[in-house]
Amino acid sequence: MNLQQRLERSKSMESVDFSKFQSINTNDALVKVVYTDKLLVVPNWKIPGDFEGGMYADYISEHPKYDGVFVRSEVKIRLEVAANSLKLPYKLVVHAGHRPTAVQKGLLKECAEDYKQNNAGVSDVEALEHARMFVSDPDSTLPPHVCGAAVDAEIVDSSTDRYLDFGSSMNDDNDKSFLYCSGLTKEQKTNRLLLTAAMLDAGFASCMTEWWHYSYGDQLWAWFYGMENSLYSPIDI
């Protein structure tokens, strides 16, 4: 697929059974993402008030060697390709990569509980189904982050040190998180397209429900590119 075809693919609203894309368990080590001239690493646990980051921080307090953003080595290579494709003053910023299974399960639980608190009368089943739209369930699929196959990223303007306006903050669990949601300004649409094009051109797959989430080698990627299998299975350090 060329870039235009990939962008069209990213607009798909197809309902997909990702479970059919089973992993061939490619042996590709987890490596730490490092700073380059065009790639910045700002872990979400170092962002004040970041809910997900708080869970990572708790995990790192018990696993101090985990203090870094890790991804599969092939994902790291493609991140650098995407970052280098951006023209100055733009730089790619990575906030998260691999996610420990314990953190994944905690996020799913908290997302479901938060939805119940804000929507009276919602059942546990309904809350879990809502949460699964934004957080993969390790009990029913191969979560991209747990596989070390996904990253959460955005773009900063290095001339102002300000992040581009994407129309919502990362990890919002509402319609504004959808890559092609309605109600965006022209600037916000342009910024999302800039990020999406850079990541797709580097071989990543986009996520319909999260504008900041991109993956390589997971079940979503396998569907996106018409592969028979995904590459990676869940892994912990």
Automatic annotation (TrEMBL):
It comes from the Bacteria. Keywords: Cell wall biogenesis/degradation, Dipeptidase, Hydrolase, Metal-binding, Metalloprotease, Protease, Zinc. One of its GO terms (biological process) is proteolysis. SUPFAM superfamilies: Hedgehog/DD-peptidase. GO terms for molecular function: D-Ala-D-Ala dipeptidase activity; metal ion binding; metallopeptidase activity. It catalyses: D-alanyl-D-alanine + H2O = 2 D-alanine. This is D-Ala-D-Ala dipeptidase.
